Amino acid sequence: MLSAAVTGVGGAERPGQVKMAQAVRHAIEHDEHVAVQAGTGTGKSLAYLVPAIRHAIESDNAVVVSTATIALQRQLVDRDLPRLSEALADYLPHEPQFAILKGRRNYLCRYKVTAAWPDEDDDQLFDPREVSATGRMVQRIQEWAEETETGDRDELVPGVNEQAWRQFSVTAKECLGAQRCPSGAECFAEQARERAGNVDVVVTNHALLAIDAMEEFAVLPEHDVVVVDEAHELVDRVTSVVTDELSEVAVATTVRRVGRLIEQGVADRLQEAGEDLKALLAAAPPGRLDQLPQVLGDTLSVLRDAAFACITAMGSRGGDMWGGGKNDDPEKAGQRKAAFTALDELHDTSVRILEAFGGDSEVDRAEVVWLEGATDRRPAMLKVAPLSVGGMLRDKLFADRTVILTSATLALGGTFEGMARQWGLGPARPDDGGLQARPEQDDSGASPEKPGEGQAGPEPKTGQKRKDWVGLDVGSPFDHARSGILYVAKHLPQPGRDGLPKEYLDEITELIEAAGGRTLGLFSSMRAAKAATEALRERLEVPLLCQGDDSTSLLVKQFAEDPATCLFGTLSLWQGVDVPGPSLSLVIIDRIPFPRPDDPLASARQRHVAAKGGNGFMAVAATHAALLLAQGAGRLLRGQSDKGVVAVLDPRLATARYGSFLRDSLPPFWTTSDPQKVRAALRRLTATA
User: Fold this and answer.
1) What is the tens place of the pLDDT at every residue in 373-392?
2) Strands (E), 56-153
3) Which of 323, 382, 538, 622 is the most exposed place for a label (fewest CB within 10 A)?
4) Backbone dihedral region of 157: left (phi > 0), alpha (psi from -120 to 50 degrees) or beta?
5) Is the pLDDT score of 447 beyond 50?
6) Distances from the Cα of 689 to the Cαs of 515, 680, 682, in angstroms?
7) Which residues contact 541 (CB under 8 A, 6 or more apart)?
8) Which residues make beta-bridge pairs with 520?
């Protein structure tokens, strides 16, 4: 079947692809999990789709494929699955069927298009130009609503901002339900769910996968196999789903929603609590909260109680959903459901923040709370997130299903252990391909520990057997040692906090001149990317683009079309650029991408691991850096004929104790610290390009 699939899509079968397909088949047949690292060009989509489709049709049970990015979803649905289904039709009882399913918020709500709805935002937060632009987007959505057949936001091109879209969509909690909603029979989200319930492969995203696993109600069709592609993103996406926030705008929006549904005096209590919260957050410094200040605790308690009083004043939320028995008033039903949803979120988030400080010690803490400062576009807000999502993933995702996890970057430091601990998995089955963790030390000179030691995977619930899992690295079709050079600029000073040193700018200039442009510059911050762009535009004759000059997609397109062009940017470019061919032969990384020391979540997780006796630096900071470095280095070789250099300017990659752990996370390039050899190699590439 795999051979037929490869032929059908016009590809070439690769040993790594075959090995991966066999591993996925074995995992499905033996009801165990498998984590597969498959380098760029392996053809991993076919490697997991072929055995997954065979299982889905033989068992009459859908398989769910989850991705982190819209781009991969579209590739699967628009390109891979149509061709694959046709290629496999002769080998199966019927031609495989597939569908894409997104969260309800991604679909146009027909009811909300026609019904009056409480104001979602306070226009005073936006300048007139922004309000006008949003107004034009609203008009365009209204026109599109008359002709769309799917209601899928991604089909609205060009896209619209969140403020405009929010006026035409609802969350799952705000939805009236298909039975109660006047537009339920023609609901786009329900139609998408119905399509997904009748196919063999359902393509979705990590966020919806998490919601389906965490919530009591099912969002996805019944399934017993999940493929998590781009699995290196799973923990961050799940963390985002279970992170709650509290702000003055959330309170003000809730007050507007309930104002016409309850007595004014009760609503006024909530408004006053919101004003107190606004004043408090405006005066407080941003950052992590290790202790709950009494004034904040008192304010949150008042807000919690005021929200509960409003919930009580609203009355029944059950069968009387139409409001006071007025079953002919669907407009009021929407208003009541929106009000209950907003009140529940205020109340539950206040309670969650208050309870986050209940542990007697750091070891007992389960969550972290921090204040995010205001910006030009949003107010200050309190946020609360779990220190680990491993337990949730273990109980809700891995317990009852076979899970295949795959990415080009999973074996960090030469082992899957770091990622597995974050997922909540225990030790791998012994025959995991022989991958072993390499002992490392942090900057403090602490004793060698594996990444994540002291952060062991949580124990399964009583009576619940933990499934086995294995890790497998199927390699890459690229000959990294012959096609790429890893250059570590060991002679440069360590990066400081005051911007890019002059020596770094000199080094970048010489490298780009040797490469004749054709450079992707990956920087640890937007400030560094912009500073380098401004300084080097005066030195270089080649075109130099910087993220933010235009939309990222247009900048990448321009970069790919002109080999002389360079593109500088930050986080999204580390993982989102796919430019094969002569337009990219040099990737420059300015510094090891450790999380910022003041990052509230990362610093709290690091300290929590240390409190439990582990190496917090290796478990959190080094693992985060290794993952991003591997993703960044992976931008270089995207096609079989690609050649080039990954230049890391940060000398700590060669000199620090943790350097070998980071290097072992990278593709096996030929490595040097000699700038003369690197510039000569780049000039040879330029001459033959």
Assistant:
1) 988 878 999 999 999 999 99
2) 62-67, 98-100
3) 538
4) beta
5) no
6) 10, 14, 10
7) none
8) 567, 587
Look at the block and give the residue holding tokens 């086995």.
Answer: 468
Cβ neighbours for 606, distance < 8 A, ≥ 6 positions apart: 616, 617, 619, 620, 621
Report residue 184: phi and psi, to 5°: -60, -35
Residues 6+ apart with CB under 8 A from 432: 416, 470, 471, 472
119-154 confidence digits (pLDDT tens): 555 444 444 445 678 888 888 998 999 999 999 998
DSSP 439: P
pLDDT in tens, 578-620: 899 999 999 999 999 999 999 999 999 999 999 999 999 999 9
User: Residues 79, 569, 232, 88: what is their CA dihedral angle, to the nearest 10 degrees?
Assistant: 10
Count Cβ neighbours within 10 Å for each residue of 368-391 and write b for 16 or more, e otherwise: bbbbbeeeeeebbbbbbbbbbbbb
Interacting residues of 385 by C-beta distance below 8 A, sequence separation 6+: 239, 242, 243, 244, 367, 368, 601
End-to-end CA distance of the chain, in Å?
39
Dihedral pair phi/psi, residue 432, rounded to 5°: -95, 30
Q: Measured between alpha carbons, how far is 323 from 334 in angstroms, rounded to an integer? A: 10
d(CA 140, CA 117) in angstroms, rounded, equals 19
CA dist 49 → 210, 220, 226, 296 (Å): 21, 18, 11, 51
Tell me what pLDDT residue 117 has. 57
Integer Rg of the chain from CA: 26
- The reply to whether the predicted model has a pTM over 0.85 is yes
The label of the residue with tokens 């894409």 reads 100
For the segment 27-50, what is each residue's pLDDT rounded down to a tens digit? 999 999 999 999 988 999 999 999
What is the C-alpha separation between 242 and 259, in angstroms, rounded? 28
For range 348-359, the mean pLDDT: 92
Q: Does residue 418 contact residue 622 with C-beta atoms inside 8 Å?
A: no
In terms of residues, how long is the chain? 689
Q: 3-state DSSP call for residue 531?
A: helix
Residue 320 pLDDT: 43
Return the structure tokens found at 590: 């300015």
Q: Which stretches of 206-363 are assigned E, i.e. beta strand?
A: 223-229, 244-247, 287-289
What is the SS3 assignment for 352? helix
Q: Report the DSSP beta bridge partners of residue 35.
A: 405, 471
Query: Helices 44-59 and 15-30 sit at what angle, rounded to 10 degrees?
Result: 30
Residue 391, token pair as written in the block: 């337990």
The Cα angle at residue 166 between residues 370 and 113, in degrees rounded to 5 = 160
Q: Which domains does the chain have, with CATH numbers?
A: 2-97+199-237+390-473 (3.40.50.300), 104-189 (no CATH), 244-386 (1.20.1440), 480-688 (3.40.50.300)
With H, G, I as helix, E, B as strand and everything else as coil, classify residue 202.
Answer: strand
- Tokens matching residue 560: 């790919």
Looking at every residue in the chain, the average pLDDT score rounds to 88
Does residue 39 contact residue 478 with C-beta atoms inside 8 Å? yes
pLDDT at 70: 83
- For residue 614, give the DSSP letter: S
Q: Closest by alpha carbon to 566, among 618, 627, 513?
A: 513
